[in-house]
What does this fold into?
Amino acid sequence: MSFSIEPLYGTDDFGRVYADQGHFRSYRVDDNAVVVGADGGTLYIRAFDDDGPVFDTQQFADHGSVGFGEVIVYHIHDNRDGSMNVYYQVRDADPLPAQLTNWVVTLDTETGLETGPATELTTGIFGDNTMSMLDNAWSLPNGNIAAAINGTFVVADPDGNIVGQTQSALTSAPHGVNWLNDLAVTGDQLAVAYASHRAGAANEVFLRFFNMDGSANGDVITVSEAPSNSFGVFATAQIETLTNGNLVVTWTDAGTQPEDPNDGSVWFRIYSPTGTEIVGPTLINSITTGSQTRPIPVATETGFIVSYVDFEITSPFRNHGVIHEYDLNGNFVGSEVGGTTPGGMSAVRVDNNTAMFIGSSVFEVNLDGDDTSLDPVLPDPIRFLTGAETADLLEGGNNNDRLTGLGGDDTLIGNDGGDTLIGGDGNDDLRGGATEDDIRDVLYGGAGDDRIDGGYGNDELRGDAGNDTLSGGFGADTVIGGSGHDTLTGSAFADQVFGGDGDDFINGGFGHDLLNGGAGADRFYHIGIADHGSDWVQDYDAASGDLLVFGNGTATSSQFQVNTTHTATAAGERSGDDDVEEAFIIYRPTGQIMWALVDGAGQSEINLQIAGQVYDLLA
It folds into this structure.
């Protein structure tokens, strides 16, 4: 079998958090199992993971004496920021008549301590101060909360604002019973399994799908027409998403399935994400005199396990926990019975290879697989950061961020994503993304002598005013110097580089680049190797002081030749003046074209600089 069991906490050391079993609940928060309970008007909470305690029992939100009343926790929501919201109702019967109020308090995930005082809730779905604030609630991967309230299925944000709902979608649960319905997420759908409890009628188990906005998706699916058995145990329903996306639904009934007429039995079915039955009703166990608690399914990498308590009131008077294991196709693999085998009131799968079974004691069930989190990797939020008029360090995440430096010598780091970086005034340092996951960034230097590196992606770099240094990085970039004497390089791949005003130094870098010096005496650099490619210079003008700069200092001017010819696209479109040929500067030792000068045949000089010495190739 692919699991092992070990006791984690006994009844004595589980502590006061279990004082009120009727309203004891457990949740998963940040790879931790969090258990909460109440004693009178005081709430208690503790948390543990597969390494042991995260924090011991903490008291919080003390509402003092409530007389014959009580405090009931309805939900704990993981805020995904190191904190959790606890939603609860105070039923204060001191003095009578009882007053019902709803509250939320935020606790630190690692310590269990309050980050601020509890707040009374008077609006939204959490403001319902009837005896059923919520039948049940579940935190969703997108940060919202799904809830069952008097038969209505609702999706709301953590403040209780309704995103969407479906009226009369579920059957309302009787007071004090919180396991009659369960929710699982499969893809972009929510699957809810629930049991009905109507006076004088059979207690049926159903499955229904909903969209993430709370709207129903399809008809109700009948899982089992199952009255509670003669020993008085409610029909129950639980659901779990398997690793292949299918859903396993487990339930108890009283022998209404034709395969098993006994008084109490536990079952499962497997459904596809669209509600098609994959595996029909499969008997897990049955007994004739006694009861079995609700069967709790937990997904594993290769299938699922089901835990329940088997209790008989006749010989052999069994009262022990049972775990059955099944593969993804519903085939039985093996079981653990008795001893330290948990039945549990609830189960929390804290990570990929650990589940906690929680009742009056806590058992850790170790599953096969890597010790990884179950939480989806959420995209970073988009960051809109603005600095001050001083030197700032602003850093984006992995989304499409916008960073604005304003004044001062700022450092702006976009990281991955399609970022916009604006340096503003000052000598700024702007950097795009440093990994292959980066996409197109737009970087504006603003006034000042800026350093701009596009990094990965097909970026647009603008130096603007000042003597800037721009490097396109990895990608087919557009590099624009602006005014000032700029140093520009396209770096890798085929780039477009524009010097703008000023005496600029332009290096196309590796790849076949398109270069435009703009106004001023510009220098067009070629390192002298094949990987640098052949660069096209759009506006070489010797009269303005433009130079071709060769990186191989051992070369001589006699090793270069100038050829001229017309070039055109397949459609006949010329790159320059129709009456002037292009000039191709060829390095004869390798036969490589180093530069192609648009309308170069119209120049009276083509000046080449080697090791600081300037030669006219037309002389």
Observations:
- Residues 267 and 283 are 5 Å apart (CA to CA).
